[in-house]
Structures are given as C-alpha cells and as structure tokens.
Amino acid sequence: MGRNADAIDEGVAIALAAARLSVKNTILVSTISLGASFDPQQFRETARDALIALADEQDAAADAVSRARKAAWGRHTQPHGTHDYRDRDVRNLRRRAKQYAGVAKALRAKAEDEQELRALVEQAREAAWHDVEANLEGRLRIEAFRPDQDPDYASMREARMQALRLVDLQKLSAQARRRRKVGAAADEPADA
C-alpha cells in the first residue's frame, strides 16, 4: 500500500500545481487585463472548478485503465506496442486504476475543503504577484540599463558594431533601395 499512497500523494501534488497555475492565470487575466479587483471568494470558485476538472480527468484515466485491464485479461500473446497490454500487465493496470481513483478522491475532498481552497488561492495570488514583480523588475532593469553597469560592455562593443554594419545597415540600405524603386515606378507616366 505504501507505493500506492506515495503515487497518490505525488499525483495530488502534480494536480495541485496544475490547479495553482490555472488559478494564477485567471487572477492575472481578471485583475490586469479586465481591471477587476482581487476577490478571494471569486477565485475560490475558480480553484474549486479547477480541482473538480482535474478530478474528472483522473476518473476518466481510471476508467480507461480499467477498460485496458479487462481487455488484457487472458491475453498471452506478444504485445505489438506500448499500450497493447497482456495478461501479465493486469496487476499493474489494476494498481494504476486505484491510483488514478485515489488522486480523484483526494482532489474532490480538497475541492470541498474551504481551508484548502483558501490556501490554493493564496498560493496562486503569490505566484501571480511574483510574475508581475519579475516582469516589472525586468522591464525596469532593461529600460534603466546604462553601459557603465555592464561589465561586458566594452568587450561586446565590437560585436555589436559588426552586427550593426553587417545586418542593420544592410537591411536599412535594402529598404531605402526598395523605396526609391517604388517611388520611381510611381513617378513614371502611365501608358495610354
């Protein structure tokens, strides 16, 4: 039973990370894109929905594995692929179905536990804030960057100048030629 319990705990941890990511993205879209205020109660419903959806996925996986187990029962030939199960796979498939069902049960329990939902929303809020903070720091660092703050500025200057000459100036020259050619074609009188 230890292996099953460990597998279920690991599955729940992975599902909680997925739920946290889903809630975090909803928080970001709602508060930044839509300009809504942060309301923990609203996001508790989002967290509950995410956990239920993940539990439904686990139940579907348990059903699929159970069907595969039933189909594998009594088959003793050589398999033709990874998911072509045989009788020797029945025990492992039964264990996997129990594990999927165990993860689904645990997720449904968490979806009904207000304290778990509050914790999930708070973790998602912190993750959302971390994303916003990292984005702002990055933008401020780039926009406020000065050459004297970069220890590699002098050594990389020659490479930047070469890129300017070989790429940027060549592209600018080609654009100017195209504009002149289009302008000259527009100035030619049309044949009557």
What can you tell me about this protein's structure?
With about 190 residues, this protein is mainly α. The chain has two domains: about 1-145, no CATH class; about 155-185. The protein is built from five helices and no strands. The protein has helices at about 1-35, 40-70, 90-110, 115-145, 155-185. Helix 1 (about 1-35) crosses helix 4. The longest helix has about 35 residues, at about 155-185. The termini are far apart. The relative contact order is 0.11.
What's the alpha carbon Rg, rounded to whole Å?
29 Å
pLDDT < 50 runs, ≥5 residues: none
Enumerate how many helices there are, as a single number. Answer: 5
Report the end-to-end length measured between terminal Cα atoms: 91 Å
Short characterization:
This protein has 192 residues and is mainly α.
Structure characteristics:
192 residues, mainly alpha, single chain, 0% strand, elongated
Question: What's the topology here?
Answer:
Blueprint: H1 2-33, H2 40-72, H3 90-111, H4 114-143, H5 153-187
